[in-house]
Amino acid sequence: MAKVLKLTFTCADSKEWTLSLRYPKDNLTLAQANTCMDAIITQGIFLTAPVTKKSAEIVETTTTVLS
To answer: For 24-57, how does the pLDDT look when each residue is reduced to its tens digit (9 = 90+)?
Structure first.
């Protein structure tokens, strides 16, 4: 099962911006995700700068190969 951590922010122009990270650590907590999101906002390292946190979620997918 593949896991992806999706961190969604709101930008100054009110548009949503999502950062998807593969292989999040097991047992990641909301507090840890919030700390990460705060660092992203504070550092301002992206051209489309996020200004507020919207959500954090881990998405799990299962792939079944049909033969």
So the answer is: 999 999 999 999 999 999 998 887 789 999 999 9
Handedness of CA 36, 38, 42, 44 (dihedral sign): positive
The three-class DSSP label of residue 25 is: coil
The whole-angstrom separation of Cα 25 and Cα 6 is 13
The residue written with tokens 């946190």 in the block is: 53
Adjacent-strand bridge partners of 59: 4
CB atoms within 10 A of CB 2: 10
**CA 41, 42, 45: angle at the middle one, nearest 5?**
70
What sign for the dihedral angle of Cα 9, 19, 62, 64?
positive
d(CA 49, CA 9): 9
